[in-house]
Amino acid sequence: MKLEITEDYYDIAAEWQYQMIIILRDTLKEKGIVGEQAKDIVGDFAFNLSMLHDQGEIKVDGKSYNPRISFDDFQGKLLTTDEDTYLHEYAFGNTSEAFGE
Predict the structure, then answer these.
(1) If pLDDT is split at 50, 70 and 90, which confidence band does 1 have?
(2) Cα–Cα distance between 69 and 13 in angstroms, integer?
(3) Is residue 15 classed as helix, strand or coil in its secondary structure?
(4) pTM of the predicted model, to two decimals?
(5) What's the CA gap between 65 and 87, in Å, rounded?
């Protein structure tokens, strides 16, 4: 598989975040958590997960890693970026959109 650094990464990552927010929103709804409480939970979770992605540091066996999401285009390319990411800046906006605002 070929690694491709692309400017499309940010649009794809924002859509991935939105889809994750929809899954969490729907899961909370199935469990009876709706309205502002659900929106607050989803927004906080999306923001915190995005901060882990954007600025997080994971240590394994004494080595540090920053997590990165990449996207398979089903044509032999793995799309990614080598720049800083700012998904946390979209977390609450995507949450509002998922809740129809």
Answers:
(1) confident
(2) 8
(3) helix
(4) 0.90
(5) 18
β-strand partners of 5: 80
Q: What would the DSSP string read from start to end of 22-81?
A: HHHHHHHHHTT--HHHHHHHHHHHHHHHHHHHHH--EEETTEEE-----EE-SSSEEEE-
- In our burial notation (b when 16+ CB lie closer than 10 A, e otherwise), range 67-91 reads eeeebeeeeeeebbbeeebebbebb
Q: What is the pLDDT of residue 2?
A: 92
CB atoms within 10 A of CB 38: 21
Q: Torsions phi, psi of 32, nearest 5?
A: 85, 15
pLDDT digits (tens, 9 = 90+) for 17-56: 999 999 999 999 999 999 999 999 999 999 999 999 999 9
pLDDT per position as a tens digit, 41-52? 999 999 999 999
